[in-house]
Target: GTP pyrophosphokinase
Amino acid sequence: TEKERREKERAKAKAEADELINGGEIKTDKRDVLKVKSENGVIIQGASGLLMRIAKCCNPVPGDLIEGYITKGRGVAIHRSDCQNLKSQENYEQRLIDVEWDDDGSKKEYMAEIDIYGLNRSGLLNDVLQTLSNATKLVSTVNAQPTKDMKFANIHVSFGISNLAQLTTVVDKIKIIPDVYSVKRTNG
Model:
């Protein structure tokens, strides 16, 4: 029957995923058997019960294109598709698994990091922090350093956001602060 066939496919997919993660073997046969949502807002194609984590090297947020990378013994790491750390892994293409963001509308917080470069003037850091405070709920880390000649400032900030649209809004608001010359997202 159809129900028995689905149960066999699920069992086979789980066994293959367990073998990939626990045994370290690489297989390239990807199957769209079932979709399983993780607690971090990512849906994985395949079996349930897989350990999944957001990669800190690129800090993907909903709206980013993402890839699941099967690690040896640590489950599936979720990376941005353009992550250089992911692409530098040996045989990385053979260890990819289909993943996608869950569009359930939850208000989960994801960490994003940006670098800001501007004129080292009195109040610049305050202006940046005011903008962040008005646009986000959580500012996690702030690091500000002047350049050697003390004329410019490099500011690194990590903060919580819910999706790529919110990150874009925050970046756009910081770009219009007087004496800010550039704002760019970092890879973590």
